[in-house]
Task: inverse folding
């Protein structure tokens, strides 16, 4: 690993606000850092740029492996930049935690988009704590906004907890699907529907077109079985082809129309307000855990009883409570 | 909601250890409770039953919606109980967090297995904190073991963080897949392969058989591109039909052979030892967060500044640090 260049707090702030991409990348690396000294600077930088954030439309894009996310984002991203907008793409990929990317290599992902000066692509951090991924992604997103990006895509894989985390930081959540073998209605879960603002059937090209149209009808019918959401938006079902671009313009227009409606009915701001509260809570968890594990007495105590914990000689939850009590005692002692 | 009946600590312990299913269910509800008084009893119950845990084989089963998990578990579960073993099935389903189950209803899931006296099926808790799901699932699993179950299935949906959490508590991780439209190799991620011990192509029946066999060959070839895992086990690729039962016996034998090999090479115990340490760390996080949010001063301080946090007038991360400092100050004051 190349040694990271450290900038001053003001250099980070000025660089990000002036839209300098090198500094933007360095600032994202800073917020991803686990070092307490970096964390403090990161918080200062975030607080300083915060007034310049919030102006982009934040779009979450998810779908299981094989659904064609990279191709979709590549094409859809081109459409966005051709509209004269600056686009940032952030990837959250917990599945590549212990490795990196797909078998065929991630180097070829979004090849043309990554060459486009109007787009900024930030690959997912790897080897990091699970809880932290989403917190850092949120901060990366805000840094991109402060750097002047008009649209942020947050890409995530699968349908699980990472999606719930991403849903907690975007304005619009888009689920990519494939036309399957007739079990669309079986597989689709209420929670997923409640989470997404649009269901897009990808790969609607060539001999898949008919199946995609059929799937679209089935989903659209199924959606009517659900109670109306708080924001009164009925998730849209559309087909598209990431390969030849069919349907992408309509998806972009639909997102524009969603944004307009949500701003008018007040949900857009309400949602962002809730998200700010979640952000605070995520950061509280992060701070509590770091101060716990960085406490030297705790570190020593864990090391001393590691064998007993691992062998099961002591109960893991009993030991956990004991350690938290030691931690609290330590805090009290600090004062004396 | 029916009012929950509270038992004494000893009643929970005796009931679980005697294999009483009503008490087992009540004990799982107890560990799922967020009430501090329940937590303390739950910890006592868990510590008391801990010496009687560890004897089952713990199998994680995952796959995206539509892959046929319920049908697979129904059939595979029957095979397990026909072997004379007692089976517990626990479901972790973050996607149904804001709702419950699939459109067509979860009532019909695993219908015959749920009627079988040799099987115990525990549906997923809903509306709970994300981080908590996995912690509780681990404790539910241990309670099932203490109640005498020989095999535990932990079912989860999608491929994301919940899988990583489940991987952290099972001995064997099985990924169900479908034969797709040739993009198997594109979609499969290194992280998923590194996580799973077997890739099972489901729905290998009727006109799908050839496609399933082809997919199996492709996956098996791809797996050879990966470095050998620490436990020297090369993930197996197999086909099966949850519908007609084809291939299930071979899967069960493969899991037996895995267990034997891992016990012999020491990995089985090493993996469980690491999992015990994770359990402790999960519980530490849980305790830190509960003592923070249950602190009356913190509660009041959050309420007082809620408007400012939500509007963005104060920086969420600045406020987080401030609250953590108040919390630490509070702990110090307690002593005086």
Result:
């Amino acid at each position: 690993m190349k040694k990271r260049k450290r900038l001053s707090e003001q250099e980070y702030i000025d660089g990000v606000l002036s839209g300098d991409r090198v500094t933007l990348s360095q600032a994202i690396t800073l917020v991803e850092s686990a070092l307490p000294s970096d964390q403090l600077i990161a918080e200062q930088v975030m607080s300083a740029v915060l007034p310049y954030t919030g102006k982009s439309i934040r779009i979450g894009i998810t779908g299981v492996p094989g659904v064609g996310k990279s191709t979709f984002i590549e094409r859809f991203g081109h459409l966005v930049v051709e509209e004269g907008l600056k686009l940032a793409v952030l990837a959250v990929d917990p599945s590549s935690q212990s490795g990196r990317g797909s078998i065929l290599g991630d180097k070829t992902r979004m090849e043309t988009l990554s060459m486009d000066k109007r787009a900024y692509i930030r690959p997912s951090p790897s080897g990091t704590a699970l809880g932290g991924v989403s917190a850092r992604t949120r901060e990366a997103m805000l840094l991109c906004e402060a750097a002047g990006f008009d649209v942020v895509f947050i890409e995530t894989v699968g349908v699980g907890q990472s999606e719930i985390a991403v849903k907690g930081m975007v304005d619009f959540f888009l689920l990519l699907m494939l036309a399957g073998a007739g079990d669309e209605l079986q597989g689709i879960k209420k929670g997923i529907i409640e989470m997404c603002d649009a269901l897009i059937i990808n790969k609607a090209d060539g001999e898949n077109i008919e199946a995609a149209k059929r799937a679209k009808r089935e989903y659209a019918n199924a959606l009517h079985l659900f109670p109306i959401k708080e924001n009164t938006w009925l998730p849209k079902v559309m087909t598209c082809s990431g390969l030849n671009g069919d349907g992408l313009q309509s998806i972009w227009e639909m997102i524009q129309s969603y944004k307009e409606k949500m701003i008018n009915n007040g949900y857009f701001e309400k949602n962002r307000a809730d998200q700010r509260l979640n952000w605070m809570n995520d950061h509280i968890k992060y701070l509590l855990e770091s101060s716990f594990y960085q406490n030297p007495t705790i570190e020593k105590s864990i090391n001393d009883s590691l064998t007993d914990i691992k062998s099961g000689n002591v109960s893991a939850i009993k030991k956990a409570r004991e350690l938290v009590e030691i931690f609290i005692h330590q805090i009290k002692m600090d004062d004396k």
